[in-house]
Amino acid sequence: SLRDRLAILKSCRYVDRIYINNGCEDSRPAILKSGAKVIVHGTDWPEATLMEQMGLTQEWLDANGIVFRFFPSTPGISTTQIREQINETMHTSSN
Question: Which has more confidence, 77 or 2?
Answer without folding.
Answer: 2
